[in-house]
Amino acid sequence: MAGSYNLSEEQLMIRAMARDMAKDKLAPRAAEIDAKGEFPWDIVQFYRENQILGMPFPVEYGGQGAGALSCNLMIEEFAAACSNSAHALADHWLGCHPLEIACSEEQKKMIFPLLNKKLVAFSLTEPEAGSDVGNIQTRAVLKGDNYILNGRKCFCTNANVADYVVIFAKTDPSVGTRGLSAFFVDTKSPGFR
Questions:
Q1: Is the whole model's pTM more than 0.70, yes or no?
Q2: How many CB atoms lie within 10 A of CB 88?
């Protein structure tokens, strides 16, 4: 098949399925979403109903266990039909990725089932640091059993629509970037804005 680039049968199937979804569901809404400048909530609901939000998560956490290439094939097909709808999904997956890398098994069992239905934001960039992680000024200080986060972020992907946000903060400034931690924060937490 031309353009298959040695994709597996499963990857070819995911790409074909994504192409059909994009043609049937995303393309008819694309112009209206662009014209109104709205977040595609109906498309996000479609993602929820079709278990697309959790596609990259392992099956044991309620996901589909799709690899990065399969997820990227889906994003590519969705973007061809509606860039905003594709962006909403890619932004969610961006917020999920640090959790996939660093969470304990117990945390994954708690968090990933939530993110099969709820949106997450990714919060790294700061006004004074850009995307220079070594210069992040946001601090996280342990008080009792909880961390208190203080700082300012900008370009927080999905921030205005997310239920949760992954916030990068310094827990130990004396060790540079090794003193950074990622925190999974409910956007309804006291003091969050």
A1: yes
A2: 22
Q: Which residue's entry shows tokens 């909530």?
A: 41
pLDDT digit string, tens, across residues 152-173: 999 898 889 999 999 999 999 8
Q: From residue 119, how far is each of 75, 96, 148, 165, 173 by CA, in Å?
A: 16, 9, 22, 8, 30
The two tokens of residue 70 are: 């399969």
- CATH for the stretch 120-186: 2.40.110.10
Coil vs helix vs strand at 167: strand
The number of helix segments (H) and strand segments (E) in the chain equals: 6, 5
What's the first-to-final CA gap in the chain, in angstroms? 50
Cα(115)–Cα(29) distance, integer angstroms: 24
* Ramachandran angles phi, psi of 124, nearest 5°: -120, -50
96: burial class by Cβ within 10 Å (0-12, 13-18, 19+)? buried
Decide if domain 9-115 falls under CATH 1.10.540.10.
yes
Cβ atoms of 77 and 85 closer than 8 Å: no
**Are the C-beta atoms of 59 and 65 separated by less than 8 Å?**
yes
